[in-house]
Structures are given as C-alpha cells and as structure tokens.
Amino acid sequence: MRHKVMLMSLTALAASMIAPATRAADGPTWPPAGVSLYGDKGVPDISGLWLGSQTGIPGEQPAPNRGPADGRPETYWAPWPLPYTPAYKKIADERAAAERAGVALADTSARCRPFGLPRMLVSKVYPDEIVQTPGQVTIFLNSTVPIMIWTDGRGHPKDIAPSFNGHSIGYWVGDTLFVDTVALNGQSSLDSLRHPISDKGHLRWSIRRVAPDTLHFSVTDYDDEAFTEPVTTTNIWTRKTDPRWQILDDASCFENNSKISDKPPEDGFIKF
User: Peptide bond preceding 28: is omega within 30 degrees of 0, i.e. cis?
Assistant: First the structure.
C-alpha cells in the first residue's frame, strides 16, 4: 500500500510539471510567481530560431560558400587591423600564410572539437535556437555544444576549469541581456578566420532585441595577452520562421570529416 501511495504521488507530481500554466484545484501554479517559461519576468522574448552574420576582413571579398546560408553581408571587428601583441601577431601571420598554402592551422572543427567562444557568437552559417527558462538563457548552437547563460543571480564559480565556452552569467536591463564570460581555454579563435586568442580572454557581450525579429549581439574581447586593447564587433541575428530552416543536414564531424576519414565525404551532408 505504501508503495502504491508513493507511485500515485510521483504520478501527480509529473502531471503537474507538464500541465498548462494555470492553477489546478489540487496543485501549484506553474510557472511560479515572478518568472515565466520565457525567462525572467518582464524581459523580452528572444526565444526562437535565429541566424547571424559572418565576420570578415574589411576590403576583401568573402570566400565562396563561407557566409551565412541566407547570403547576408559580413560584419567586422574594430579596431582593424586587429591590435595584436607581437607574440600573437606572429601566430596570426603564421596562420594566414598557412591558409594561403591550403593548410588550416588551429581549425578546431576539422579536429572534431567544439567551435568555442567568441567564434560561435560572430561566425554564423546556420541558424541557432535560443531557449529561455526561469533563471537561464540557453543558445543551442548548430553542430557544437550549447552556451548556457545563468540569469538567476549566481556568480562565477571559484577555481572553475577553463573550457571552450567558458562560464557565462547575465542580467537583464530593459530590452538587453548583459553577459559576462570567463574561464575560456584559448583553444578556440576570435572568428571562423581563426584569428588567435589567448586563455586570458574575458568576454563582455550583450543581446539586445532591437525589433521583434532582430537581435544585436555586441561582443567585446578583453584579452591583454593577445591584444593591446579590447576588440569589439556587433553581429546581427534575424529570426527564421520558415519551417525549412528547422530541418538541417546532419553535421557529424566524425562521420563526414574527410581530414580524418578514409572514405570520401557523402553528398548531402556538411563537408569539413
């Protein structure tokens, strides 16, 4: 009998968690007072499918098939040329020379590793999904690991291990979500052009809904080891509502990566 009562209680709890956002006669209101399923109370709804821009080099034509799938123009970092320290200017020049020779140095995607930040905020090819839940905004990125932004008032953990995406916390002011990201491992790059960064990078960025279907991602990288001053850019994301954007080809790096596989890439899939 005791086990039967426990089972009934668990069943009722599960039902209350998936029930509509109204008060049932015998259960609590969900969402709880003060928050909504779209995020913190009173903030704009930025949930949905969005596509941003690629960063490019001022004055240079973009490489064929390198930009976003909807063909929008590139955005740029400032100041330009990038204000590298001597050590990182040498790394950047080595990567550029290798690129001209057909060798992609420091290409994490070719080695089936996460793309990382800030690259995935400013180098967009396919749409990403933003999901708002109480105390958290999550960006589910195409073919790599998601970005989790904690908006519940917590701080950065002490002695956190560095990672490709680091640790992000944020807060809302009006229509803008301000984000602080630390603990980046420096193994990613500034953008898809593989401009180098260090493991001392500290990102301050914001997401502002400037129109119902337009977001401005303003990103500043404070990296005293790689740059002599902060570098910044604004990437424009637009909402994609056509159902065709919701169904993309598989993008398994291990399955279709010609650099690490003996078989040629299959047609119909993203090629690395």
Answer: no
Beta bridge partners of 184: 163
Beta strands, E only, the chain: 35-36, 39-40, 48-51, 128-133, 136-140, 147-150, 167-173, 176-182, 202-211, 214-222, 231-239
- How far is 164 from 228, CA to CA, in rounded Å? 23
Cis peptide before 81 (omega within 30 of 0): yes
Contacts of 38 (CB under 8 A, 6+ apart): 45, 47, 132
Phi/psi of residue 133, nearest 5 degrees: -135, 165
Q: What is the DSSP string of 200-227?
A: T-EEEEEEEEEETTEEEEEEEEE-TTTB
Rounded Cα distance between 254 and 115, Å, is 14
Express each pLDDT in 148-165 by its tens digit.
999 988 899 999 999 999
For residues 221 and 197, the answer to whether their CB atoms sit within 8 Å is yes
Q: What was the pLDDT predicted at 134?
A: 85
Residues with pLDDT less than 70, the chain? 1-40, 63-66, 110, 247-272
| The two three-digit tokens of residue 177, written as one number | 């979500």
What one-character-per-residue DSSP string does 163-185 give?
A: BSS-EEEEEEETTEEEEEEE-B-
